[in-house]
Design goal:
Layout: H1 2-17, E1 20-24, E2 35-40, H2 42-52, E3 58-66, E4 70-76, E5 89-95, E6 99-107, H3 109-129
Antiparallel strand pairs: 1-6, 2-3, 2-6, 3-4, 4-5
Helix pairs in contact: 1-3
Length: 136
């Protein structure tokens, strides 16, 4: 009974967390407050590196604003945060001239189902293997 309950709880937890993928989206169609990933030019990556404490052509964050000139993302700051248990964020503006691509994070139903199915099968198989099905 406990094994089945544990498997059910694990399956619900995995389903709630889900597996996500990033899919291309036009900036005009991107939903405000959505989690997005922007690919920027090397020049923009170098400019953002000081503010974000990381050099990367991909910037992941939350879309907080879009205009005719570009997009603004709220991104987590990387690096040591002394004495703070809260994450710090910075807002960065990315002009369209520096934006190579914009992708929106979406829940992948197929990947989530495969992941949950594999975990449930593993837990159930393990439970049966150790004798969880025997009375006694």
């Amino acid at each position: 009974m406990v094994g089945r309950l544990g498997a059910a709880i694990l399956a619900v937890a995995l389903t709630a967390s889900g597996c996500y993928v990033y899919e291309p989206v036009r900036p005009a169609d991107a939903i405000l407050d959505a989690r997005v990933r922007a690919t920027v030019t090397p020049e923009q990556a170098a400019e953002l590196s000081e503010a974000l404490r990381a050099i990367s052509p991909q910037v992941t964050g939350r879309l907080v604003e879009r205009s005719d000139q570009g997009v603004m993302l709220e991104v987590p700051l990387h690096g040591p945060l002394r004495g703070s248990s809260r994450a710090l964020y910075s807002r960065v503006s990315i002009p369209f001239s520096y934006l190579g691509a914009l992708e929106s994070r979406k829940l992948s139903g197929w990947r989530t189902a495969v992941s949950v199915g594999a975990v449930v099968a593993g837990v159930t198989g393990g439970w049966a293997f150790v004798g969880g099905g025997e009375g006694g």
